[in-house]
Amino acid sequence: MLAGLFVILLLFIFLGTPVLLAIGLMGLIGMIMNQINPAFFPQKMFAMLDSFSLLAMPYFILAGELMSRGGLSNRLVEFAETVVGHLRGGLGHASVLSNIAFANVSGSSTAATVAIGSILIPAMKERGYKPGFAASLIATSGTIGPIIPPSMTMIVYGAMAGVSIGGLFLAGIVPGILIGLGLMITIFLHSLSPKFPELRAVSGTVSLMTVIRSIRKVWVSLLAPVIILGGILSGIFTATEAGVVACFYSFVVSFVIYRTVSFRDLPRIFVDAAVTTSMVVGIIAVAGAFGWLMAFLDFNEYVLGTILALSDNPLTVLFILIFIMMILTMFIESLAVLVIMIPAITHLGTLFGYDPLHLGLLIVFSTQVGATTPPVAVLLFVATGIAKTSYDQTVRYCLPFVLTLIAVLLLCTVFPVLSTFIPHVFLGK
User: Is the pTM of this model over 0.85?
Assistant: First the structure.
């Protein structure tokens, strides 16, 4: 029964059925086949969304829309180019730094890929970068969005797994920076190859005064994560309330300081934020109801039994769990996989005594690696569309960048202190 449901679900997805509709249909079909009252499905959908912590999500999405429409991405790209544009593969490095900075506002890998990619991919192509290479780099660097706080995915995980969202935010700081460093090293290694002459171009040096002038243009934007995390750490507001603060700050920055957004733009901004929120909430709801059905059919016990049959070593089990999450998110939308798998993940965490912040960070990280790995690879499809190239060309260049993400993920797995040190120091968690 379980295998049949997943096979049909994958078939629906490969046929182009929207993920939300595919999961919803399979949930209803599964309930009918198991003689469960279909009325339970909408009840379980509502129960999945009945969480105070999830209230933070629409506010952070709206804050991201305000900042993005306010020209934040343009300023961040300009700042990144000023700092690293003179280096080998300067525009490539700028894309990574821009994603690190933009992650402090958006918290979404898709939003970061679209915002940064729409600016930098055309610029890269003008300077001779191969379209597939540019798309691969933008897509993989977009994974930094859900790792560095604030993160939509961490809000969902924390709300459902009962883990401190503020702690998860802090746990992502070092791994997010490591991803950025790893991708920049990969770009530098590409620049040493004769196949990438465009990466070896160096356009002079940059002075300290130029960097300072550039910082003066973006410091207001870079202050957003300081206010959000500072408020959470000091106990002034909760992670959910931080979403409201982020919205208010984004409004002030866009309307008062930058003056790039007017009241006429608000309806469009609200509609876009509402559409994004509806998509995310819809996936969470149907995936939660589907996850309840899976639990009813002993899916969690099946997963646990399979993993424990392979090994009872805590580190090996952790590697197996990460591998499973990566494989699943190669075919199914990462947020849906996360919602379905959380019960089994939390049970394993309790059974083996994993640090909940470390485990949460690894699970979120692994879903992002899967989202950049073919065949589905949503982020690669998004970046490919922006680059106006073929998906085959993008896949051709993505392997080194995906391997870099996997290397950082393995490093964070083996050395938990990389994700737990900061939250333990500030929160004692």
Answer: no
